[in-house]
Amino acid sequence: MTLQNTEIADRFEELADLLEIEGANPFRVRAYRNAAQLVRGQTRAMADRIEAGEDLTELPGIGDDLADKIAEMVAKGDLELLQEVRGRTPPALVEIMHLKGLGPKRVKALHEALDVDSLEDLRQAAEAGRIRELEGFGEKTEASILRHIEQRQGEEKRTGLARAEALAAPLVEALGAVEGVEQVEIAGSYRRCKETVGDIDILVRAAADSPVMQAFVGFEAVAEVVSQGDTRSTVILRSGLQVDLRRVDTAAFGAALVYFTGSRAHNIAIRRIANGKGYKINEYGVFEDDERIAGETEAGVYGTIDLAWIPPELRENRGEVDAAREGRLPELVTLDDIRGDLHCHTDATDGRHGLAEMAEAAAGRGYDYLAITDHSRRVSMANGLDPERLARQIDAIDALNDELDGITLLKGIEVDILEDGSLDLPDAILERLDLRVCAVHYGQDRSREQQTTRILKAMDNPLFNILAHPTGRLLNKRGPYPLDLQAVLEGAAERGCFVELNANPNRLDLDDDGCMQARELGLKVPVSTDAHQAGHLDFMRFGINQARRGWLEAADVLNTLSLKDLVSALAR
DNA sequence: GCCGTTTTCGGCCCGACTGTTTTCAGTCG
């Protein structure tokens, strides 16, 4: 049993968390965290690299020890050190440490002084008022712990699309290779490209005598078989993700794909139309009386009720059915429409690669331009740029542009919007840039009014071009800060500035609703990766997924413009 | 635990904020 990259990364992360609670050398902890991040970001499986005889220590941050540990996980599917650490430090403490306001030191104190080994222990200790008695804790901390436990329990556990993709890909590949399988498609919210998915629904087109079900439940990443039948099985992967597999005949494949892609609201809407025409739609086809009149393809199913085929990203019953009937479905933006990226970092701040490497990576993706937007000084932890360092970077970009062919680096900054709505760097240096991406990183706990006012005030500065990750949310980690997004979008439209769709799969901020709001205002949306290393430029596709869910066409996306048109669009 | 060559040890991003204190530890980003 070998582990996938995601699973290797998960184990390194858990190890880092547990060691941190134990008070291990913080740099050792960081080494494990770095390794987790690195492995998670690799497109090729560690197992493949090892099989090919590659030297893993050539990866940055991987030395002999970590290479051995990766090899151990690939070979044995397990990591002895992690088992050892779990034996002496309860794994549930990791969950506790992820509560806001609790870090390794406090978790250790809670564990040692109050025997807290689980969230439930913690809740009881807080309710009994025992936490406030501890040194370094007080009433406010105790109340905040209780509040965060409750918030957490209300949350539905969903998996980010990027992670779901990484977990599903090997399964899809394996199923495709099974005898008798003609086609494999992932349906459900995954196919609709929702930012997170609850589970994964896979459809295979195969004859009844295909051994696909046995292959599915026997897949190496399966931890538990929940149910197994001839046409449907459900398993839980080791990662905790639930996967349903359905086997469908060719004649019903399109109907099943529509049915299992959903959304539920979309399906109800199209079934209602079918009823009006005297038809019945189910997962086996479109039926007139008992005769199947469509079912093999999706287009055929939609066609029977006089609808154009609807892209899965739109199937949310948000107007797509009417649009399909009236022939005014949007021509959704695609990755090929993108001409450049307007937000990325370099090793001058918290990125991994230098200007030249980023330029090369962008050129390799066929882009015409890439904006370099490192952090400003306020973000000290990322080694943000002060005016002097930014001036040096400006000169370096000018020099590099003279050498580059086919790609232009734009001089930019991700400048912090300070608490009072001013920008973190003086206008004199900001004026020398091609564009300014402006962001809130600190002071996210302001009221809705304060936060909205702060951002609108920042936009009053004519040097303000693009608001980065507008709500600050981190999927599954942190909700959006309170903000009147409609007012911010209107403010941007009035002033000639823009609001970003951050394509990082943990952000995807704007969300799909925000994109729709922007589109109604005629406000072009920049889709930007916020890349912190060259490979992150590939996050673009997650941003495009989200933009498509928000009904955006190429003309609605700022970075589909040519360099010349982009420059005029940015001018205020 | 990784890295580098003024290396085989000693450094590795650090300032703001919160809640706890009454000068600061812990957490966050």
Task: Tell me what you see in this structure.
- The protein is an alpha/beta fold.
- The protein has three domains: 5-154, DNA polymerase beta, N-terminal domain-like (DNA polymerase, domain 1, Orthogonal Bundle); 160-326, Beta Polymerase, domain 2, CATH 3.30.460; 335-570, TIM Barrel (Alpha-Beta Barrel), CATH 3.20.20.140.
- The strands form five sheets. Strands 11-12-13-14-15-16 form a six-stranded parallel sheet.
- The chain is globular and about 75 Å long.
- It starts with a helix and ends with a helix.
- The structure holds one DNA strand of 29 nucleotides.
- Biggest sheet record: 6 strands, parallel
Fourth-level CATH superfamily of the largest domain: Metal-dependent hydrolases
How far is the first residue's CA from the last residue's CA? 58 Å
Radius of gyration: 26 Å
Average residue pLDDT: 90
CATH architecture level-2 label of the largest domain:
Alpha-Beta Barrel
Shape: globular
- The unreliable regions are none
Could you say how many structural domains there are in total? Answer: 3
- What is the helix tally? 24
Query: Given this structure, which CATH class of the largest domain is correct?
Result: Alpha Beta
Number-wise, the strands total 18
| Structural class by SSE content | alpha/beta
Strand order of the largest sheet: 11-12-13-14-15-16
Strand residues, percent = 5-15%
Assign the CATH topology of the largest domain.
TIM Barrel
Instruction: Classify the helix fraction into a percent range.
Output: 40-55%
